[in-house]
């Protein structure tokens, strides 16, 4: 988060220092100094200081940019890991759903409608998060269970 503040701060510093021009050392509108002292050494010193500040500001901006780049790389890596884990969990859920579908088929073959209905309730809860092929199997099993339950009720009434 500090990277977001560092770059604008250094940019503002650089612009401020760059906008200062010659630091008010211009000869225009000023009288020549008397004596042997000259403004040139002070001007050269100011220019050297200004260059040093600019170099440090540029180094800081480069460092901040590198830190930002490293943060983006770490974020991309974390997102990739999260995507991989989500895919793994999805595959695991699909496998578990397929196992449950197999169990429901077995229960229906053995005419154990109560156990089949219990598992179907769980499958129907998971249905929206499963792939289309598994959803189709669940729909077919649900229709088959309803048909068998209807037949059982008819036999009970006779």
What does this structure look like?
With 158 residues, this protein is mainly α. It has one domain (2-15, 47-157). Helix content is 81%, strand content 0%. The radius of gyration is 38 Å and the shape is rod-shaped. The two termini are 76 Å apart.
Mean pLDDT: 79
Q: What's the helix count?
A: 4
| Count of domains | 1
Largest beta-sheet details: none
Distance between the termini: 76 Å
Helix content: over 70%
The computed structural class is mainly alpha
* Subunit arrangement of the protein: single chain
Q: Helices and strands, in N-to-C order?
A: HHHH
Question: Short summary of the structure?
Answer:
The chain has helices spanning 2-19, 40-109, 113-126, 132-157. With 158 residues, the chain is an all-alpha fold.
Feature tags:
single chain, 158 residues, 81% helix, mainly alpha, 4 helices, rod-shaped
Strand and helix layout:
Blueprint: H1 2-19, H2 40-109, H3 113-126, H4 132-157
